[in-house]
Give the backbone structure.
Amino acid sequence: MNRTLVNYYFRSRDALFDQVFNEAQDAFLKMIDEVMDAPTPFKKKIENLISVFLKEAMHFPYRELFIITQMNRHDVITAKKSRAQKANAFLEEIQREMDKGTIKTMNPRHFTINLFSLMAYPMVTAPLNKILFGLNDEEYTALMEERKQLIFELIFP
């Protein structure tokens, strides 16, 4: 797409990026919400979250990196403070599971950061990992499929 078309349809490159960002983030949040809002036990919810997150990340390998980059470029985090209620509900659910002894006791925020780091980091660093480990796309996809179970077993030993 050339600059003239970008300006004609979106008025600026930033407006185009904003629209793409909003659509990417909305799709990501919809996927997360479907898993998190499901009336399933915590352990199954986490298993589903890992599976869906990695499946989507493999299907759209640059989405997470794009969302993070755009969030760092603009002050879009303040616009998403409405998500705090959902995040707090998840933190409370994590705390209940820690109180029951289902998962290791820690600050629930650490649990959440660890969970999403275990899922997202290999996707963001996929090009580097493929080079370092000498893997092609199919082999890396197979490695990520194995990772679903590995993450679940790390959380629920």
Notes: Residues 13-36 form the longest helix (24 residues). The radius of gyration is 18 Å. DSSP finds eight helices and no strands in the chain. Helices lie at 3-10, 13-36, 42-59, 63-73, 84-100, 108-124, 126-133, 137-155.
